[in-house]
Specification:
This protein is α/β, with parallel strands linked by helices. Helix content is about 35%, strand content about 20%. Helix 2 links the parallel strand 2 and strand 3. Helix 1 packs across helix 6 and helix 3 runs parallel beside helix 4. About 35% of the residues are buried. The protein binds glycinamide ribonucleotide (GAR). The site of glycinamide ribonucleotide (GAR) has 14 residues, from helix 1 and strand 5.
């Protein structure tokens, strides 16, 4: 059974989509840990509803980033995590975590990178008047939404689209494709079995 962790900071709709697909398709894998840097985040309730253990922490209560990343690593080892899936984790991964899990951390970003990195990517794309928006799944390095691209999906923006409808399209793309990319990276076949 492959074990992976999801990192999230807020709502957690991607977390929910990943766990739902995994269960529906009976993957030979499990989310063995949710890591969350916001004690108030809705994603913590979602994890509890699925009985998935979570490590929720307040970055401010640690001396610095290496200190809280060491605490995260301890939890990742305890839960035998092989892959880290960032899903709305709004914090740069530091050296400590990168050294321990280099090449095993992926992120989803709501734009066609390298366009519109950072926060409010959908708003930036909308205000730029782009005719095609999209999502990117990529490996994580020390940069902000940089790192080798694994997959991208695009959606056309129509005349009648508003920021809200674009956000909705983007979330639909994320919920559909992120679980598929994770499944492939875990080496599972279309039936969710180990190959
Ligand atoms: C998602 O749209 C994700 O792509 C984005 O945060 C949202 C989280 O939504 N991530 C980034 O912007 C990373 N730079 P969710 O909490 O409902 O899954």
């Amino acid at each position: 059974m492959k074990k992976f962790a999801v990192f999230a900071s807020g709502n957690g709709s991607n977390f929910e989509a990943i766990v739902t697909r995994l269960k529906e398709e009976n993957w030979d894998a499990e989310v063995s840990l949710l890591v969350c840097d916001n004690l108030e985040a809705k994603v913590l309730e979602r994890a509890e509803a699925f009985s998935i253990p979570s490590f929720a922490f307040q970055p401010k209560s640690y001396e610095n980033k290496p200190a809280f990343e060491r605490a995260i690593i301890e939890q990742l080892r305890l839960h035998e995590v092989e892959l880290i899936v960032l899903a709305g984790y709004m914090r740069l991964i530091g050296d400590t975590l990168l050294k321990a899990y280099g090449g095993k951390i992926i992120n989803i970003h709501p734009s066609l990178l390298p366009a519109f990195p950072g926060i409010d990517a959908v708003g930036k794309a909308y205000r730029a008047g782009v005719k095609v928006a999209g999502i990117t799944v990529h490996y994580v390095d020390e940069g902000m939404d940089t790192g080798p691209i694994i997959a991208q999906k695009a959606v056309e923006i129509g005349e009648g689209d508003t920021l809200e409808t674009i956000e909705q399209h983007i979330h639909e793309l994320e919920h559909k494709h992120y679980p598929s990319v994770i499944k492939e990276l875990l080496g599972l076949n279309s039936r969710g079995e180990k190959q």
